[in-house]
């Protein structure tokens, strides 16, 4: 299946150089060259199709299309590399924000892969809250990572709610300082590679379900099956858990603007069902976010149609939505 114009749940690491514009041009060039070298060096550990790298001038954004741990490992390793300042003629610091959210993969004007959507926008907002050498993550990223192991969850400290310039609130978590992060990295990796705690379920059957779900939502499938497997005693029970609307694709989105316009729950459920025919389980997240921005059912329908790749899909969705009202 082509990844172009497809909606993914993606972990985005967004970073920039602190006070970059305060350096003179020659220093900016030296900093940029050093930062680019460190980023490229870390990304050589991944296959080229596992990530999308976006140049941001004074920084970069890396959208990881693999397991969410990859974004955290990248951020920890990059912070350590920058602080080591190997072969750097100008000392500098970076700040990093990580978010898990929906993105759409598109082609830019040069024909290269690029991304759009809340996943990357929220990563930038989370980064804005961070200071020199800090790694901040969103609630959605923290709650998915935290389900892997207790050791993993303890890497983070909750900092409370932060509001951006648009007065949009985010729950923000800070990754442990560099020394603690480096010490815990091996424990994180071991937890991420371990099977679900419930050994009564056949590993091959679990992997089969991971593979099928991956085709719909990407690498987050492994995390969701792990979470369901910890609650199920049989494969039949596992399938029922995975099918229920309460088995959420994301623990919580960061917009904090859910149902603020008072949409009827039945309408939102119908919208989720209709959109799900095109984008799969991520429909729940997209409907929830759109409900916070729409002023009426018509604008809600238009926002959701905008998530679809083709004009034919948009027209079919809008027609079905109108009939269902």
In short:
The protein has 13 helices and eight strands. The chain has 325 residues and is an alpha+beta fold.
Structural summary, described in words:
The protein is α+β, with helices and mostly antiparallel strands and 325 residues long. The protein folds into three domains: 7-192, Nucleotide cyclase, GGDEF domain (Alpha-Beta Plaits); 203-243, no CATH class; 265-324, no CATH class. It is built from 13 helices and eight strands. The chain has helices spanning 25-43, 69-84, 118-129, 139-146, 150-153, 178-193, 203-217, 220-229, 235-243, 265-279, 283-293, 297-305, 311-324; strands spanning 7-17, 51-55, 59-64, 94-107, 113-116, 135-138, 156-163, 169-175. Strands 1, 2, 3, 4, 5, 6, 7 and 8 form an eight-stranded mixed beta sheet that branches. α7 packs across α8, α10 crosses α11 and α10 runs antiparallel to α13 (311-324). It is globular, with a radius of gyration of 20 Å. It starts with 6 loop residues before the first strand and ends with a helix. Mean pLDDT is 79; it is low at 179-184 and 248-260.
Produce the secondary structure layout.
Elements: E1 7-17, H1 25-43, E2 51-55, E3 59-64, H2 69-84, E4 94-107, E5 113-116, H3 118-129, E6 135-138, H4 139-146, H5 150-153, E7 156-163, E8 169-175, H6 178-193, H7 203-217, H8 220-229, H9 235-243, H10 265-279, H11 283-293, H12 297-305, H13 311-324
Parallel strand pairs: 4-6
Antiparallel strand pairs: 1-3, 1-4, 2-3, 4-5, 6-8, 7-8
- In DSSP terms, counting alpha (H) and pi (I) runs of 4 or more, how many helices? 13
Name of the level-1 CATH class of the largest domain: Alpha Beta
Structural class: alpha+beta
What is the overall pLDDT average?
79
CATH topology of the largest domain: Alpha-Beta Plaits
Beta fraction: 15-25%
Helix-strand string: EHEEHEEHEHHEEHHHHHHHH
Which stretches are poorly predicted, pLDDT < 50 over at least 5 residues? 179-184, 248-260
How widely separated are the two ends? 32 Å
Instruction: Assign an overall shape.
Output: globular
**Domain module count:** 3
Cα Rg: 20 Å
> Considering DSSP H and I runs of 4 or more, what fraction of the residues is helical?
40-55%
CATH homologous group name of the largest domain: Nucleotide cyclase, GGDEF domain
Task: Identify the CATH architecture of the largest domain.
Answer: 2-Layer Sandwich
